[in-house]
Amino acid sequence: MERHINAPITMEQARELKSGDYIYITGTIYTARDAAHKRMEETLDKGEELPFPVEGNIIYYMGPSPAREGRPIGSAGPTTASRMDRYTPALLDLGLGAMIGKGKRSQEVIDAIVRNGCVYFAAVGGAGALLSKCITSSQVIAYEDLGTEAVRRLEVKDFPAVVVIDSRGNNLYERNSE
């Protein structure tokens, strides 16, 4: 099924999505990769606030290339999601609504997705130049010293993705490998 959703995502929206649905996201999402996730974990361990409100928000596992003149961002393809697996359950337990990446997730992440009623989306790897056309603005909001791994706030319009793991634990990768 094809669906259009707004970000941040509500838990009701997340629960309506099914593994295999094609979605188009419009609104605000955030980027974070390995180094930013490590820094966020350290921030939480110190009892400090994260650089953006987690509840209902979507993290896109992406580190962009430099923007060409007149564009808000360069190539913006997904990175391998499993690299963030050690950090993800804690963020999901804080209310993170969804993640966008590529590749499989650990059982611990799948369990946290089900426990919290959220979703994992995949974006097409190798299509970063095309995906960047759906990004209307990009602003570094935290950890600027991390360069391309800094946390960014993105405004997106009709950003395409596929629901891989839905809130019930149905997994598109598993279903299609049988």
List the secondary-structure elements in sequence, H or E: EHEHEHEHEHEEH
Overall strand count: 7
Rg (CA only): 15 Å
Strand content: 25-35%
Low-confidence stretches: none
- Average pLDDT rating: 94
The number of helical segments is 6
In this structure, how is the largest beta sheet organized? Answer: 5 strands, mixed, barrel
Instruction: Give the structural class.
Output: alpha/beta
What does it look like?
α3 links the parallel β3 (58-60) and β4 (98-101). It contains six helices and seven strands, in the order βαβαβαβαβαββα. It has helices spanning 11-16, 34-45, 88-93, 107-116, 128-132, 172-175, and strands at 2-7, 22-31, 58-60, 98-101, 119-122, 135-142, 151-165. It has a five-stranded mixed barrel with strand order 2-3-4-5-7.
What labels describe this entry?
178 residues, alpha/beta, five-stranded mixed β-barrel, 7 strands, 24% helix
Question: What's the structural blueprint in terms of helices and strands?
Answer:
Elements: E1 2-7, H1 11-16, E2 22-31, H2 34-45, E3 58-60, H3 88-93, E4 98-101, H4 107-116, E5 119-122, H5 128-132, E6 135-142, E7 151-165, H6 172-175
